[in-house]
Amino acid sequence: MSDNVVQEKQLRVWQTETELPPDVFQVWHKPNGAISPVAIVATVDSNGSPHTAPFGSLRAISPRLLRLFAWRQHDTYTNLCRDGQVSVALVSPDVAVSVTGRARVVREHAHHDEQFAILEIDIEAVKNDMAYRVVIKSGIEISPKERHKSWYAAVMAELGDVGCSMESEASSLT
């Protein structure tokens, strides 16, 4: 077989779902503080213009819920606080999806770093964007710099904390 031909893998064919399918959930649900692939988060600014930003701190908490760690001075955070509308794109080996939903702040000041907030995204729709004629060989991955590894590990641990504390701190966005 030529180096230019990729061995085909049988993928489930689907168009839209109301929650993350198991294979997509598995990509975004990383245990023990493991780093998730980078997702592109799209919002709309106050002028109605689209805004995108890469995030490596997005986690699937359940098939219907994503959690995001965001710097409170970031445009994405400002846009999500204003109207909550969000679309998230993930491109990873054998997975290409866009997720739409509504975001809300669940912790205004993260316990580990008060300059950051934790938001949750209630998933409304998941669209399969995988082209059936190609194979995605890699996604966008990050690795924290050595001096930030412990900070990043603490952040990822806090994102995985699904305890009652999140629910009691939750505040709805308008």
Question: Can you tell me about this structure?
Answer:
This protein is an alpha+beta fold. The protein has helices spanning 22-28, 75-83, 149-160, 164-169, and strands at 16-17, 39-44, 50-55, 58-62, 65-71, 85-92, 95-107, 116-128. It has one domain (16-169): Pnp Oxidase, Chain A (Roll). The chain has four helices and eight strands, in the order E-H-E-E-E-E-H-E-E-E-H-H. Strands 1, 2, 3, 4, 5, 6, 7 and 8 form an eight-stranded antiparallel beta sheet that branches. It starts with 15 loop residues before the first strand and ends in a 5-residue tail after the last helix.
Mean pLDDT: 83
Shape: globular
CATH architecture descriptor name: Roll
Which spans of ≥5 residues are poorly predicted at pLDDT below 50? 1-8, 162-174
CATH fold call = Pnp Oxidase, Chain A
- In N-to-C order, the SSE pattern is EHEEEEHEEEHH
Would you identify the CATH H-level superfamily? Electron Transport, Fmn-binding Protein, Chain A
Helix count from the secondary structure assignment? 4
Largest sheet: 8 strands, antiparallel
